[in-house]
Every structure is written in structure tokens, then in C-alpha cells.
Amino acid sequence: MEMNKRLFADFKSQSPEEWKEKLIVDLKGKSFDDLRWENHGITGKPFYTSNDLPPVIPQLSKEHPNTEAFGHRFWVNYQFIPVNNEKEANQKALLALQNGADGLLFELDSLADLEILFKDIELIYCHVSFRSESLSTEEIFNHYHSYLSNSAIDLNKLNGFVDGQGFHIQDIVTGLKTITLKTSAQTENYSKQIALLLGEVIDIIDHKQLEAADFFNMLSIQTHLTNDYFGEIAKHRALRLAVLKLAKTYGLEIEEPMLVSLSPQWSSEIDDPHSFMLHASTQAMAAIIGGTDGLIVNPFYKVFDKNSALAERMSRNISTILKEESYLAKNVDPSAGSYYLESMTKSLTDESIELLKSIEAKGGLSQLDLASFVESKTATV
Predict the structure, then answer these.
(1) DSSP SS3 for 42
(2) Known Gene3D superfamilies for this protein (predicted)?
(3) Residue 222's beta-bridge partner residues?
(4) Is 26 a domain residue?
């Protein structure tokens, strides 16, 4: 210990100002501000120090309550399954569950025959979710509940979400979230995305005259991923914090709403599976480190148009590798204490709250000129 004390005493600590002065000298006439960058409404600095940490570092650890069964950090690896034929969808679901998936997302155009769709699937051991652009959330839930009522399944052990038209408040299957909100695709600015989602929460609770506690209990949030690795980590963390802050304004201390992250469809001009895996893995890592509860990696069908099963396997394996081989499931909050990420998290959270206040001052989201809001300049964070 004495040796360590003497060793470290030889190294003088440097202040941020001293680092900046040295950097300016090394730049040889180039402006320090030229090293700043902006992306998705975030302005980054050339370096960060402990001075950039917020006074109180938020506790964003996400540890699964059943660590013996699920490990310390758990997220759902979803397989997306279109339901055109119940028997074929069932076979695809079983194959996915046997090969790394622990969640199923069924795309419905009409109410399916659930006896066929769920044949041999143990619903309590995987997350089962539904998405539909034609059916209401209430229709889907009632149809699912009718099936469950005729079975011996313990409803308290079911998990998932319903992403249909509208929303539904229910307290029958509490692990099945029947309100799904999505971050806006109309702006790439992270703080605006968060502010718009918070504004939507307020509008729904107030205009529908809902009990805030019932709303938050049924809420799941979806967000699309980008290639902005550190920005996505900060966005996920800030989104989680901002929702908790909003719940507190209603006098509620809530568990975090379900957060599901979706990788976009592969749109690069390079139709290369290796490029796809690199991009999708980076996006998935950011979501996991940021604290997502569910991950949906869209398969790269364009390259594997004659072998869709391989495309789906590759997508599933991204999450599996990050969990089992990269050990991201062993750390409940790997970005905690990072000067850079903690600073960005706080800045995004604060900026989104300020933007929300400006939205509410104008009468709420329903009265907002969305086009002007999206196009307006905001203070970079």
C-alpha cells in the first residue's frame, strides 16, 4: 500500500483547464471548438473529466429480480413472426425458441386461431407479444384472454406487449403491456424524441381521464436504433430517466416501463452480410448497455432471399452472442460512472424536460405545431 501511495504521488493531477491548454498548443493554431461535434442534437466535447459528472449519478442498474433463472442482466431476444398461416407461424416460433429466441412477436392481419398458433409453446417460459396495423389492442387482448381463460395457464407468469391500434387498460394479465408508445420518427433529435413521447403520455392521461398509475402499469415504449453508438446509449438512459421523472409529477414511484429497441431494416447500398452484422451488433450493444428490456433485430432478408431461416438465425444470434460470449448479461449497468455517457445522459434528460415544458406551455401535444417544433433549433446538449 505504501509503495502505491509513493508511486501515485509522482503523478500530478491535471485540471480540465490544463488539459485544454495543452490541447490548444498541440493543435498548432486550429481552434479548440473545431474539435466539437454535433449528432442527433448532441454536441460532444474533445474530452471529458470528472467535472462533467452530474452532482448525483442516477441509479440505472437493471437487475432481473430472478437472477438464479435469468442472470443479473436480462433482455428479451425477440423473433418477429408474420402470421399468414397459423401452422407455419407455429413451426417458425418453435424453431426460434429452440435456437436462441426467448420472445415471439406475432404480426397479425386478423385474429388468429391461437390453438394452432400456440401448439406446444409454453407461454409462461417466453415473452409473447403481438403487433397489428389493422386490429385494435383491445381486440387482440380480448382474443388472447379468451384463449387463456380456457387453459390452466397462470396469468401472473405471462409477459409481453400488444402493439395494436389504440390502447387498452387492463389488470388481468399485468405482465402483458397493452399501451405501446413509440419515439417519433419525424425527428432525429434525441431530446425532441423524448419530449414528444412524454407529451404524448400527458395528453393520453389527461384527455382520456385515466388513472396515471393504471397507465404507467400498462406502458411499453418502443424506440428505433441508429448507428450512433454512444448517442443511443445515452438516449436509452435519458428516456428511462425522463419517464421516471414524469411519473413523479403524478406522485408516483413506478417500476420502469418496458423498453423495446428495434433495429431498422437494412438500407445500405452494400448488400454484405458482414456489414449487416457489424451494424446490427453495434446497435444491439448500444440498446443493451442503455438498458433495453427487449431487442428486435430485423433479419437481413435481402441477401438471404432464398434462405430466410438463415437470415433469422443470424439476427437471433447477435443477441445471443452479446449475452453469452460478450458477457453483457453479467453487468447491470456497464456505462455507470462514465464521464462521457453520464454527462450526455443528464444533458439529454434535462433538455427533453425543458422541451416538454415548452410543449405544455403551448397547450400540450395536441395543440403543438409539430412541423415547426421538429424544424426549430434547440440548444445543443
Answers:
(1) strand
(2) Methylmalonyl-CoA mutase
(3) 182, 260
(4) no
Q: What is the C-alpha separation between 368 and 381, in angstroms, rounded?
A: 22
Distance, in Å, from the CA atom of 4 to the CA atom of 27, rounded to the nearest integer, reads: 34
Convert the pLDDT of each residue in 226-248 to its tens digit. 999 999 999 999 999 999 999 99
Phi/psi of residue 167, nearest 5 degrees: -145, 175
Helix or strand run (H / E) with residue 181: strand 179-182
Q: Residue 185 is part of which domain span? A: 70-375
* Least reliable range by pLDDT among 63-67, 160-164, 207-211, 229-233: 63-67
Per-residue pLDDT of 52-77, as tens digits, reads: 899 988 888 877 777 666 777 899 99
CA distance 317 to 101: 9
In whole angstroms, give the CA distance from residue 171 to residue 177: 10
What integer pLDDT is reported at residue 264 of this predicted model? 83
Q: How far lies 16's CA from each of 10, 20, 22, 25, 228, in Å?
A: 19, 6, 10, 14, 26
CA distance 207 to 220: 19
Torsion of CA 29, 30, 31, 37, to 10 degrees: -170
237 vs 291: CA distance, rounded Å: 7
Which domain CATH number covers 201?
A: 3.20.20.240
Contact (Cβ atoms closer than 8 angstroms) between residue 211 and residue 193:
no
Task: Measure the CA angle with vertex 198, ends 365 and 233; round to 5°.
Answer: 135
* Dist. CA 299–CA 360, nearest whole Å: 39
DSSP-derived secondary structure letter, 33: G
Among the listed residues 212, 189, 134, 208, the one whose alpha carbon sits nearest the alpha carbon of residue 352:
189
Counting the structural domains of the chain, the total is: 1
**In 3D, which of 111, 103, 102, 115 has the Cα closest to residue 83?**
111
Least confident range from 29-33, 296-300, 326-330: namely 29-33
Q: Is residue 57 part of a domain?
A: no
